[in-house]
Amino acid sequence: MHLTIPKDYKAKLSVRETEAAIRYIRETFQDEFGQEMHLERLSAPMYVEQATGLNDNLNGVEHPVAFTMKELPGETLEIVHSLAKWKRFALKKYGFKLHEGLYTNMNAIRKDEDLDNLHSIYVDQWDWERVIAKEERTETTLKQTVRCIFKVIKHMEHEVWYKYPQAVYHLPDEIHFVTTQELEDRYPDLTPSEREDKICHELGAVFLMQIGGPLKSGQRHDGRAPDYDDWQLNGDILFWYEPLQRAFEVSSMGIRVDEAALQKQLKLAHAEERAQLPFHQMILQKQLPYSIGGGIGQSRLCMLLLGKAHIGEVQASVWPQEMLDECAAHDIQIL
């Protein structure tokens, strides 16, 4: 457990005012985001069958919450870590055409998460996915999409400021694009998280690109499952967050693997056995559409726009008593 207490922190909204703001942000953002990105809202599962290979493996060491059900003897069901793979399957299942897409509310449990101001075992986000052409699997497409999402987040900031001027956290007006290799070249003696803090403090808002593969040093900047994002065409939207003096991730996204990238990345991850799973076979046999997609943290966005010190101020979860006591002593109102 790691907890940062901002200096002289004072909650600017009561718990009930915060709850009203949470509802406003969530309802308004998803409508504006869906319209701007031309996405339809779909219902999504909370759990999937283990044998399908549809769950997100994250870094490969986290264990999903799993259970069995009476009517499916012998089948293991897993609470999703994310819907990264399910969404691409849904594009095919529901007949989405070129440049059409979907978004959905995703609720996940990541029981092995290390808890701090930004991390909870409960993950809630808007997961989204859109069909693109094979020739659109480019950095240009990726950057255009990032700028579109940034535009919606900035517009949401202005709307929150109109309703809650005393509480809104102001964001920079521009987002910058930096690769993980450029960061390593620039700050070779810093850890990956320290590099993120450094560049976000300097630039304000950054889309950090090319996450998952090994850098020149042989190390990876951060882990990414090998079977959804193309590690050369993905990234995270990061902001400098003054209350906590650190980089603040709001979204992870990317252009999805094609058949060649999947084979390459499974080999790099020593996970070639996954190629036999149904989802992976559909990619290798070109049965799924090429796509771009990602997730935008719902609680993260609320926390960012309202200038909160702890994600527990904008979502209901479970926390160690030690953390609860420390937060209560510093006016951090955990829900």
UniProtKB/TrEMBL annotation:
PROSITE patterns, A to Z: AA_TRNA_LIGASE_II
UniProt keyword list: Amino-acid biosynthesis, Asparagine biosynthesis, ATP-binding, Cytoplasm, Ligase, Nucleotide-binding
Gene Ontology process terms (BP): L-asparagine biosynthetic process
Pathways involved: Amino-acid biosynthesis; L-asparagine biosynthesis; L-asparagine from L-aspartate (ammonia route): step 1/1
Domain Aminoacyl-transfer RNA synthetases class-II family profile: from-to ranges: 23-320
Catalytic activity: L-aspartate + NH4(+) + ATP = L-asparagine + AMP + diphosphate + H(+)
Molecular-function GO terms, alphabetical: aspartate-ammonia ligase activity; ATP binding; catalytic activity, acting on a protein; transferase activity
Main subcellular location: cytoplasm
Enzyme Commission numbers on file: 6.3.1.1
Subcellular location: Cytoplasm
SUPFAM superfamilies documented for this protein: Class II aaRS and biotin synthetases
InterPro entries: aa-tRNA-synth_II, aa-tRNA-synth_II/BPL/LPL, AsnA
GO-annotated cellular components: cytosol
EC class: ligase
Family: Belongs to the class-II aminoacyl-tRNA synthetase family. AsnA subfamily.
Family matches, as NCBIfam families: asnA
Protein name (Swiss-Prot/TrEMBL): Aspartate--ammonia ligase
Organism of derivation: Bombilactobacillus mellifer
